[in-house]
Design a protein that fits this description.
By secondary structure, this protein is of the alpha/beta class. Helix content is about 45%, strand content about 20%. The longest helix is centred in the last third of the chain and has 19 residues.
Amino acid sequence: MTQNKIIIIEDNLLNLELATNLLEANGFVVASAQTAEEGLRLAHELLPDLVLMDISLPGMDGLSATKLLKGDPATRQLIVVGLTANAMKGDEEIALKAGCDGYLTKPIDTRTFVATVKAFIAAANRHSTKSNP
């Protein structure tokens, strides 16, 4: 199995550690950042298979960072999944309009998290295969 690279951009250390441990235990290569600015730098450097983007970050928020990734030809193809603890009605639509390819709420469900991440990557791979035969 090819090891998928994932960047987690999350300022809460407990959330970051939990997500990292779950993903690494399932064969993913994980890099992390605690600010949007650091995450943007990593995304350009690593070009991961998936970016898990906390919506509420110190300084630049995750929605602004997502818009920058999606507006840059070098990173616009990256899969960005928004993560938030403040899941209110309409928040998912806001994240999708900002360019997120998906949306997950926190606290993450440890029973389904890895399968959900794999599904986002698989869906993106199917889409890119159809777009680039």
